[in-house]
Amino acid sequence: MHGHRARAEGPGHGAGGHGRGRAAGRRPGCRRRRAGAGVRVRVPASTANLGPGFDTLGLALGLYDEVEVLVTGSGLKVEVIDAGAGPMDDVPTDERHLVVRALRRAAEHLGLDVPGLHLRCHNAIPHARGLGSSAAAVVSGVAAAYALAGRELDGEALRLAAGFEGHADNAAASLFGGFVIAWADGGRFAAQRLDPHPAIRPVVAVPTMRSSTEATRGLLPETVPHADAAHNAGRAALAVLALTQRPDLLLAATEDRLHQEYRAPAYPASTRLVTALRSQGVAAAVSGAGPTVLALTTDGILPAGMDVEGFDVTELAVDTAGVQVASA
Ligand SMILES: Nc1ncnc2c1ncn2[C@@H]1O[C@H](COP(=O)(O)OP(=O)(O)O)[C@@H](O)[C@H]1O
Ligand SMILES: N[C@@H](CCOP(=O)(O)O)C(=O)O
């Protein structure tokens, strides 16, 4: 399943979405999925904002979580396997598990009755680092529900997934792959996918420290100076051109004044690395809400002499396919 294109039309589903708490009951017209049905989902990580495109721009990355979903007769079993993400001590294995919540909400939306569930989650995307692990988890749950219902992913899938976090940049990238522009009209999320320029080679510097997106969103001011808003509007527009056609413009196109400096106290080492890379001409930004540092290079490496102690530096491919689902 791939190549889906988000649509801007259709009814929206916000974070308070419909059907909450009804998953256990079987409603009239609900289609029961037989025990034994199963799907396997592979979902890419993502990097959001890309500097100036706060809550708007996203890029899918070639680092994947995989989830095996088996429909059972009753109950819930969640197995969480470290496939490179590190310790999973922040993940509950009951109904609060993010993949389970997303799957249940999407199943409810699709009129699908899932009597019991067994999940095996192979997690490679590190949590709370700014690589979209939570959006990837939500997208995998939504994609699993769509596949179990025999439905193709559509714009409603994006609205369901984005409704969990209230912004769609990561979710759209994980759903559709490639480079995405996401927006919301009164809570109705939509996205447009674009093909990133093939010369772009993202490098990520991932620190061991975690930083929750919710916490660093709390550092943002209610209002920003008009000049900063104007600056970011221009740079975000330029970023669309740079990401798709003109990688030579990436340094100017990744300059941000809306969110990074406010979040800087949460991760000083990442901020220092972004500044050092930019001073060497590398198009660097904080990835998502941080603390990972993203460098959009064309050679797949960082300049010599950078202080990357405490960071795990890796080149990641751009994922162009988005979430993939197969029968298990
Ligand atoms: N694969 C997953 N399965 C279950 N929960 C997850 C998964 N990935 C992320 N989460 C939840 O989301 C939190 C991280 O979300 P967030 O702070 O938005 O960071 P990120 O930048 O990684 O998305 C984790 O602490 C965990 O509670
Ligand atoms: N636009 C969001 C992106 C959050 O990304 P994450 O990978 O850190 O969850 C923000 O900047 O808050």
Automatic annotation (TrEMBL):
Organism of provenance: Amycolatopsis suaedae
Gene: thrB
A biological process from GO: threonine biosynthetic process
Taxonomy of the source species: Bacteria, Bacillati, Actinomycetota, Actinomycetes, Pseudonocardiales
GHMP kinase C-terminal domain: residues covered: 253-298
EC number from the UniProt entry: 2.7.1.39
Protein name, UniProt field: Homoserine kinase
Catalytic activity field: L-homoserine + ATP = O-phospho-L-homoserine + ADP + H(+)
Family from the record: Belongs to the GHMP kinase family. Homoserine kinase subfamily.
Compartments reported by the entry: Cytoplasm
